[in-house]
Amino acid sequence: MRRLWMSLLAVPVVLALAVPTAASAKPDAPAEPGRAAASGAAGAAARPVAVTEPALAGAGQAHRFLRYGMHDQSVRSLQKRLAALKYYPGPINGEFGIDTQEAVWAFQETQGLPGESYVDAAMWRALGHPRAPRVLVRGGGADRIEINLGDEVLVLYHNNRIELVSHVSTGGHYYFDCSAGGCAQAITPTGNFHTLSFLPGWVSVPLGYMYNPVFFIGTEFAIHGDVPVPLQPVSHGCVRIPMDIAAFFHTLVQVPGEPVYIRSP
Description:
Blueprint: E1 14-15, H1 22-25, E2 66-67, H2 73-84, H3 98-111, E3 118-119, H4 121-128, E4 144-148, E5 153-158, E6 161-167, E7 175-179, E8 182-185, E9 191-194, E10 197-198, E11 202-205, E12 208-217, E13 221-225, E14 239-241, H5 243-252, E15 259-263
Parallel strand pairs: 4-15, 13-14
Antiparallel strand pairs: 1-11, 2-3, 4-5, 5-6, 7-8, 9-15, 10-12, 11-12, 12-13
């Protein structure tokens, strides 16, 4: 969640204005993302499409160095491989944009690689022989959401099979809203929860705005889209997901009732 900077917006949950379209929400010429890059627009996103892609032959040797902003067949191969592994890279179009960047971050996080805005030989090798994201709750149910605060990754399981892996940004552990009575601290609660409700589009709560929130504690803590979703944990306590994924995430989960497990390994 992002803090409301204007007090008149600090009201109970209300629907905001219509969701911006891709044309209005995505910058015309995005700069290369650093460790605090913004997410892409949700309007251009679609549900992930199943992609079957064999393990990459000669990974780390036969594939070129790729970075944000490139557009070629090597990027397309990267996107197909990420999609096959359930990391949503956006459209399979050969463009290394913000959607692909966020999928690269998610993969780097689950593989123990440094979060970078490029794909080097080490990542190509990992793509050829990937390890599955760490399971947080064995026996937690065939359909469930697991959020790893250590890796800053969300994993969605259906029938005990991974359906989606997403980069997230969670509570930043900073203090905010300080007054004579003290300060609030930006912490994402750990524990066992369930999805409670979904609200479409941009909504406001007393602490800020959120896009397509799926709430798991009241109408305060949610899995939701926001900008930015950097590599660092920066939220007030919610689980930020990229805008392109937030556009369809609620269609992949049961609301209410999907188990949500949050752990800090």
